[in-house]
Amino acid sequence: MSESPAHNGVRERTQDEQELGEETTERQDVCPECGGDVRTDSEHGETVCRDCGLVIEEDSIDRGPEWRAFDSAERDQKSRVGAPTTNMMHDKGLSTNIGWQNKDAYGRSLSSEQRQKMQRLRTWNERFRTRDSKERNLKQALGEIDRMASALGLPQNVRETASVIYRRALDENLLPGRSIEGVATSALYAAARMAGSPRSLDEMAVVSRVEKMELTRTYRYVVRELNLEVQPADPEQYLPRFVSDLDLSEETERRARELIVRARDAGLLSGKSPVGLAAAAVYAGALLTNEKVTQSEVGNVANVSEVTIRNRYKELLEAEDVPA
């Protein structure tokens, strides 16, 4: 069956549009083959004729959202534009910043009068972004959380969790009588433990602006008041970081993990610092695999004393039935 000229015309026009990378913007309401009505099948991405079944257009681009909504409230909640929202910014990333470049949309420099006007707008924009004490509090605290997390090498999910914990503490009025830095550090410490990337109190105190004693008190208060489910730190969670910082082999990490598992089965982990146990396990694992590392090097990485490593690694080897 030979195709009609009208049909050939549609096919040639479609091929030209595909070669040029252009999109068909005109709506075709009439079938070029039989003159029947056409409809758009969004499920299959096709435009077909209701009467003869001719596929007029295929592989059309779906310009709608990738999510589905079943009522207006859900649609408003899922609808978004621009960058995703984040709890790490005091305004959740929804505000607008005025660029610091004194240029217009075409890249031309602004006049002195326009520069002064833009500077006034930037000033007032910043004032409106932090127009009350709560917003200023959040801006300072979330900046501290991001700074400390960067210094400790904590991932994005830990920072988000710490931001949520601090927001809860602020909403429940836990800040009076305590420093912003103390609560922010406590939130980050709790978030790191909850995410399985714990850091010791000594490490937190190094990057924080509060003393270790104040950090300990504030952390216990925040966990108790917010009912956070923070499990005791597992020594195994420290092993990958210590082994990586000391540039040891995977075999050493495996042996260290085995030592901790044996010690746990023997009941030797109760009441002992998980950081000290992890450091001792790394040192003992290096001895068992004939890798050269000193107690001082392990202690510097784990921020524990050589005495702690010496006492703990002997206990770990005894649980393994290996002579120290």
Explained architecture:
By secondary structure, the chain is mainly α. It folds into three domains: 5-57, N-terminal domain of TfIIb (Single Sheet); 133-226, Cyclin A, domain 1 (Orthogonal Bundle), CATH 1.10.472; 235-319, Cyclin-like (Cyclin A, domain 1, Orthogonal Bundle), CATH 1.10.472.10. The protein has helices at 5-20, 72-78, 112-129, 133-152, 156-171, 180-194, 201-207, 212-226, 239-246, 250-265, 274-288, 295-302, 306-319, and strands at 38-41, 46-49, 55-57. The chain has a three-stranded antiparallel β-sheet with strand order 1-2-3. α4 (133-152) packs antiparallel against α5 and α10 (250-265) packs across α11. The radius of gyration is 31 Å and the shape is extended.
As a whole number of angstroms, the C-alpha radius of gyration is 31 Å
**Strand runs, count:** 3
| Sheet having the most strands | 3 strands, antiparallel
- Overall number of structural domains: 3
- In quaternary terms, these chains amount to single chain
CATH topology of the largest domain: Cyclin A, domain 1
Number of helices: 13
Q: What is the CA-CA span between the terminal residues?
A: 91 Å
Mean pLDDT across residues: 81
CATH superfamily of the largest domain: Cyclin-like
The strands making up the biggest β-sheet line up spatially as 1-2-3
- Sum up the overall morphology in one term: extended
Helix content: 40-55%
CATH top level of the largest domain is Mainly Alpha
- Helix and strand element order: HEEEHHHHHHHHHHHH
Content-based structural category: mainly alpha
Spans where pLDDT lies below 50 across 5 or more residues = 1-14, 16-27
Q: Percent of residues in beta strands?
A: under 5%
Keywords: Metal-binding, Repeat, Transcription, Transcription regulation, Zinc, Zinc-finger
Biased composition (Polar residues): 84-95
Region (Disordered): 1-34, 71-95
Biased composition (Basic and acidic residues): 24-34
